Fold these 4 entries.
Entry 1:
Amino acid sequence: MTQPNQNPIDYSTNQRQVAQLLAQLNQIVLDKSSVTKLALSCMLAGGHLLLQDLPGMGKTTLAQGLAQLLGLSFNRVQFTNDMLPADILGMSIYNQSTLSFEFRRGPIFTQLLLADEINRSSPKTQSALLEAMEERQVTQDGQSYPLPKPFFVIATQNPMQQAGVYPLPESQLDRFLMCLSLGYPSPAAERMLLQGQDRRALMAQLDAILDTKAVLLAQQGVQQVYVAEVVLDYLQQLVAQTRISQEYHGLSPRGVLSLQRAAQAYAYVSGHTEVTPEDIQAVFAAVVDHRLGQRFVAAANSQSQGLQTLAQRILTEVKVLG
């Protein structure tokens, strides 16, 4: 159980900044307030974010908007089928003046990396991100190089039925705290896009609301959000429900910890100091579906047809305690 902080720091100013950031982001990504709130919660929980949807839905716009408003150093890598791991991590170059090899750092050495269309690269190149996402370091020629703090990966992924894409392995999917889809805009939001200013022009006008210090403070504040025993009971009942079916593999211990951390972050973004069952319900599908083997096509079809994903079905089966 997460204990209440005995000597609490006042995070209220930081939470107001977070609320301001979210309001600005919702002016860029229209009519997707639930997705933007989850995406911001993912970042403040210290997790990595996978955005999967059809091309042109605003995945890259959401990623770039988050990067700019968080005020972190940012690199974007366009993944292609001929990309090599060294194109991301860096490589050792022989220096003739010193007669030795020097490590030239790749674009992954940044605070926020946008891995655009990650599934267009080969599994070998995709796996180059595994150590960085888990250990926050890169090992090359037997030497480890730490990545900046904080370090986030936002990856975008196209549907598997498109040509020239590779499936992300289970180990890679598990490194993403959340997996989100934007979907089509509402008619009203689409009209605003047609009549309004270009999204890229709007982003160019954005000023960073947070910075490295504020993001780290928010991450600290997320860890201090209290989780009561009865809420942990509810969380564990949901997790247990994922493990009783033969249709899919259950949530791992790492997935359980991810679920708790995501719920704490969602509560923090909401301006609260304690996790409620509603916070767990809000993040459950985003954290759990891709870990249960819920494939992109199945999830997209379910949403378009008004059907439930696996996680949404579990939420209906497990009642809130008390």
Note: Residues 93 and 302 are 49 Å apart (CA to CA).
Entry 2:
Amino acid sequence: MNSHIAPILTQLNKVVLGKSHQVKLSVACLLAKGHLLIEDLPGMGKTTLGQAIAKVFGLEFQRIQFTSDILPADIIGTNIFDKEDGQFKFHRGPVFSQLILGDEINRATPKAQSALLEAMEEQQVTVEGETFALPEPFFVIATQNPSHQIGTYPLPESQLDRFLFRIELGYPDPSFERVLLKGQSGRTNLVSLEPLLEHSKLQEIQAAVNQITVSEHLLSYVMSLVNATRQSPDFAHGLSPRGGLALIAAAKAWAFLDGRDYVLPEDVQQIFIPTVAHRLEFSQKASGGVNQLVETILEQVAVPS
């Protein structure tokens, strides 16, 4: 593993106890220049993970609490009339930061959620015809509560497609939960976290991840997986070309974290469910959970020899 990233993972695992795989996925998401959606019950450590990532990577951090009455201007910013100058000036909203933690994003209305669409895709926002660039790097971590909870709005497909990964933290193992109950929570370690990577180095690593080699055989494997989602009767529609590109980008980041400059089929398999599951919609014939159905595709598609 890259010598700059190994200590970062070590520190993050001291804050988010017993979730090393999810922590690694979160770091891979940042290195692949993606965005991360964390779906789970309240109190599982979603916000803590986002704050820890901001600290160890030394990123400018803004937390946006999504509520039913939040407006797009509360996120992006708005033009305000300046009496002294006699003209309108744009006052930037919290989206102008390097790491945005959108807390409980599905408690906001679709109109408010849509304020992040252009930002996540183009790394810019447009207000009254004027375009403003967002900082570099730009990383969105959004948390959402399960859709069956009161007061939630489902994220539209166009919004879900902007997230490279969707992960769940889940309940901690009993041994780690015992540590939490003793009062030794990850938040205690969060306070003492220090930046471990300069912005220029992070951008250098992101560029190196993009240069990871993907062989023709690996491309054939990814295409077979994508086609399998399109042909499956369990899904109303298959992966889009953007979904295929997301698979490649995520697999490159996973290979980098494993210390390789080339992608293996195992890398694709490791990131397949968090990359794909939130992009697929059940058909009327589907039975079982979406993760289970996506895993079935992995089992059915053979790895090219």
Note: The chain has a mean pLDDT of 88.
Entry 3:
Amino acid sequence: MSFKVKTILLFLGISLIPYALTMFLLGNSFRQEQYNAISQELNTQLSLTVARIDQHLQTLQQDMAFMAKSDIMNDIYTQDLDRRIGNTLLAKKKDMNLEGNFFVIDKSKKIIASSDFAMIGKVLDTAPFFSVPVYSTFTREEIAELVVDYRIENFRHYFSDSPQRHYYLLYPDGKSGLRQTLLEEPIKASRKLDVKPELTIVLEEEKAFAYRLLYKYERWFVLLLIAGAVFISIAAYYVATGLIRPVIALSDTAKKVTRTQDYTQQVSLHRDDEIGQLSNSFNMMILGMDNALGEITTLNKEIEDTQREVVFTMGSIGESRSKETGNHVKRVAEYSKILALHYGLEESEAEMLKQASPMHDIGKVAIPDAILNKPGRFDEHERRIMDTHAALGYEMLKHSNRALLKAAAIVANEHHEKWDGSGYPRKLAGEDIHIYGRITAIADVFDALGSDRVYKKAWDDERIFALFKEERGKHFDPALVDIFFAHLDEFLTVREHFKDIVEDDNQV
């Protein structure tokens, strides 16, 4: 007999037969009486709950009316008063433990004060739960509305739910809210709220649970339960020994393979049914995964190596267009890794930044040669065009899902941002600038100042160091400047190792 057939017969035996016997023997003798008692109890509990909710909503209305008449509401448009009103609304929200927010809106539905400061200035596009007009004490004209976004989650405070009994809200269109699950044959009681008559509170209980007291009157049913318990215990033992144990063995082996990454492990189950076939298929799958994993690992290594080469080559292309040496990107890469490690980044992340930093000026490939290689200062129009290279580089790289190219996109976009917010393209400031951008900014400027460019001669070290000290906390992250000077010998070693070789133009 197959595993499938044995499973079907087993579960038919332990579920359908006791169920059929129970339904036959229970009868209907106490059902109506029990239904009336449960209905009365449900209605009593529902009445108490609805009364508490109505009282809470009435208090909310009264509090809103009081706040709308308070003196602070009379000068709504006074400078900074939106936050003072917001603080008052926030205090009331916290005091009421309210899910949702209070808003003060003008006639165009624009939010001019709120318990959520982030909403100030936005337009309220949802219908408020309660609304109270705010009148000017001078003109007696309505100048605003105090509204509340009262979320239905607030009602949960008044619902004492259980797996067999729960409350929910019923809307006029028939939709329900806060309903936990659909109960089988539920007994229901419902009542409208006095304060919000469009909302109905429904309390429902699972019928089988409500009728549990009937079991006390059916003495024979206890004997049936005992007999059923014995039968189920025997059946459960059979299931555990004959069916579940092999499945657990398969599961444990699969977990062990996942944890150890050892794909040579096998499951040994000598069975002729579907479990045995599953065991053999599992063993074949593991062997296939072991072979495939080796191939995937090799391919991933090749892809990563190729990706690094492509990134470095693209960075070199960007630099070569502006007639800078390939050693510039090498030095910037090494400087970036030194800063990243001393800043506290993990070795793997520091290495990724090293690989990504050569792409910092890739956007220059889109800058016209006449501007890119102009010997001298840019005029205002040329400077604006030149400054677009950061955003252009980001646009080139931002679509990739590869971690390395994502890092390169950040570097390209933010390496000209400044700590004090005066950089470009987005005028980010402080730690809003990604650490990759802050690191590459120092590495790029240090190398650029110490190298000959088409528009300038290289600076001497004293002048560079003086600039870095002056720009600490302005252009550069002060912590990174401190790291730079603390480990200056490492930067100078890299510069010497990758120094530009000047070719003699007189050589043939």
Note: The chain has 16 helices and eight strands.
Entry 4:
Amino acid sequence: MQRIEESELIINSRGALYHIDLRPEEMADTIITVGDPDRVKVVSKHFDTVEVRQQHREFVSHTGFIGKKRITVVSTGIGPDNVDIVLNEIDALANIDLETRTIKPVLTQLNIIRLGTSGSLQAEIPVDSFVAGTHGIGLDNLMHFYRMENTDEEQQLCHHFINHTQLTGTITPYMVTASAALLKNFVDGYNHGITVTCPGFYGPQGRVLRMGLANPTLIDHLTSFRFGNKFISNFEMETSALYGMSKVLGHHCLSLNAIVANRVSKQFSKDGGLAVENLIKKSLEIIEGI
């Protein structure tokens, strides 16, 4: 088995991975990702016990128990680039022997669940409601750096999406499906739809301040997209990267989002913190039983 060199996988002085500063025994097989570092403690306050607390830069991690369920919640920060760091390192903790720097012969499959915020792209999905993303469409470029095979359905969806939005040339979208094994648990109280991941908050999500947009009709095209019974429910900045990397690495992944803005009705939640708290409490009850 080929050894992974020191420059490729950085291990710090306490035997933890460089960015997330966790050792293998400090991470559970069920991972909750949140964008905001401050949201880690908002999740872990619901744990019965917390056994690990680590922080390095924007990467905050707490590991503990709800009942008999061991869970790690880790912040990614905002955007696909940070997801690339966190997903690679949590997979390495599970599936690379840090002593020999070789891939383990028997791989561990993780459950990775995002608890985040996003904007609705459908009038009937109001602020303060929840969305479970059935698919992730990436408008970022992260997964173009990895080898990923798409199913026929993913290829058809992506092709139709590109034709509908006329996104060609400078943007090459990619499509990834959520874990069906996780998605089936999040039905009652969750809207289901396609989540679009953007590489920024302003122009990439159609916001205009002082810079004009290269594609000013993008939001309208996202809202009007249909492929059979599939439609785009929301957009944010992490889901497609989580889905794509989890697929390549062989993990189950699902993105759950509280809607804090409705871009069709132009509404913003009056208490986004409460919406996130409600998403956390409802989702943790389900996660405990998975």
Note: The longest strand covers residues 252-262.
